[in-house]
Amino acid sequence: MSADKTAPFIQIRNLKKRFGNQQVLSGINLDIRKGETLLIIGPSGEGKTVLIKHVIGLLRPDEGSVVVDGVEVNKLKERDLAPVRKRVSMLFQGGALFDSLTVEQNTAFPLIEAGVRDSAEITLRVREALEAVDLYEHKHKLPVNLSGGMRKRAGIARAIVGRTQCILYDEPNSGLDPIVADVIDRMILRMQKRYGVTSLVVTHDMGSVFKISDRVAFLKRGVIHFLGTPAELKASTDPEVRDFIEGRSGITS
Amino acid sequence: MGFLSYMGQLAFLLRDLITAFQSGVWRLKLVAHEIVAIGFGSQAVVIVTGAFTGAVFTFQTYAKFKDFGVESTVGAIVSVALCRELGPVLAGLMVSGRVGAAMAADIGTMKVTEQVDALRVMGVHPVDYLVLPRFIAMMVSMPLLVAESIAFGLLASYVVAVHGYGVPEAWFLAHMREHTNMLDVGIGMIKGFVFGVIITIVACHQGLRAENGAVGVGVGTTRAVVISSLAMLICNFFLSILLNYLSPLGTGM
User: Minimal Cα–Cα distance from A196 to chain B, Å?
Assistant: First the structure.
């Protein structure tokens, strides 16, 4: 909704968050431009998920600000966040599907809640979303009867069905076989090309980093340690970045 | 201090609930579903509770009243006690065990598996979607469950007194009618309504604040039943004083 087209879609300034004794985020500054795909990589437990949860207002920062599409989300009350959340959707690590609903009903949920009443349109869009993640034939199953990877894909279907302007993916590829992981990567690219979706992807999968990202952010010790294009990442001489992309632990057997 | 902050949290939940109620989006399908689960499903429990309470109360009072030679007034005392106190309190305790526990466990599980966050991400306030339908269903169901419990209590009392002890049917019914009226039943139903509110608020609050996985859900469920039961008993005392002040007990006793 911002007037300025070149303004970043998401603007994170000096974001700090602490859980108990652990300072998880210690001053994050990051801009995500409209329509770009930015991947966040970094070691486990360094706050990548915490970071994207701040973007959609699930967590409140201790300090700093998060501006999404011109709206400062950390200042809004829970009910006032709804309009922002209609423009941004999120895939949870575990899928977070509703146990009591089938895959189809789960996928239709955001549409129905957004006020779509035309059942033909709902059926069509749900079908489209489920086919994009190769799950259409399982639409009548309940989440408990799905495998972990299928649950994740159903979660992705639910995140993309509303055609929101921005999608936050929390590890879309983990737990998937290489072929399906590629299907998901292609789908993220397609969403960007076809609908101009801004994507923020948390991942460990270096393969998708070089396949889909416009820019990469490397998160370590609560700050953005590296930010640049995949080519710059590949050329980086920073030892910590190198260890991460080459998968070296430094332990010798 | 802990108590004050707990009451504060309940007050906030109640405020959110009122906002949700006023919003007019009631999700009647969910309400209907909850009425079936809560109201219809609890019938067997409250019927058995009411019937055997009525029966045992009659059995014991008869023995003592016989000493005074007023055994035909057993119906009167049983009826007043059931309507005003035993019916609502025992039905309330049973429903808190059955329904309150289920509410806390359902919502708690959704909370720890991020389903509540998924709702929030889709711009749906958890109170609107999870608490309000349960609340409306309880407000409808509880008074009826209490009335049902009382009715079966009186029926059991009749069976024990008239068919078990051979109290003349006419005397039993005449005394019962003389000393109870619709107001007594109404008081029972009002209490049932209040208890329904207490159970829903306490149980849903425990569910929504659940954390730490399965252990947290277990703790929340236990607390929901214990706190709502105790709160009901304490409220019942003050409610009795208030209601008896507004409508003094019996004339001829």
Answer: 20
Rounded Cα distance between A57 and B111, Å, is 16
Prediction ipTM score: 0.87
Query: How close, in Å, is residue B117 to chain A by CA atoms?
Result: 7
Q: How far apart, in whole angstroms, are the C-alpha atoms of residue A75 and residue A67?
A: 10
Contact of A165 with A88, CB cutoff 8 Å: yes
> What does the pLDDT look like over A161-176, one tens digit per residue?
888 889 999 988 887 8
For residues A120 and A36, give the distance between their C-alpha atoms in angstroms, rounded to a whole number: 32
* Domain ranges across chain B: 34-245
Q: Do B115 and A99 touch (CB under 8 A)?
A: yes
Query: Is the distance from CB of A31 to CB of A10 less than 8 angstroms?
Result: yes
Half-sphere exposure (Cβ direction) of B190: Cα atoms closer than 13 Å? 16
Higher pLDDT, A86 or B223: B223
Q: Is the dihedral of CA B232, B234, B237, B242 positive or negative?
A: negative
Q: What letter would DSSP give residue B27?
A: -
3-state percent helix, strand, coil for chain A, nearest multiple of 5: 40, 25, 35
Taking Cα atoms as reference points, which of A167, A191, A172, A6 lies closest to residue A88?
A167
* CA dist., res. A213 & res. A229, Å (int): 8
Compare B147 and B24 and report the one with higher pLDDT: B147
| Whole-Å CA distances, A98 to B67, B136, B252 | 62, 22, 58
Q: pLDDT by residue (tens digit) across A53-73?
A: 999 889 989 988 999 888 888
Domain annotation for chain A: domains and CATH numbers: 10-87+164-253 (3.40.50.300), 96-163 (no CATH)
Tokens read off for A187: 């789908």
B125 touches A at CB < 8 Å = yes
Q: Are A50 and A59 in contact (CB under 8 A)?
A: yes
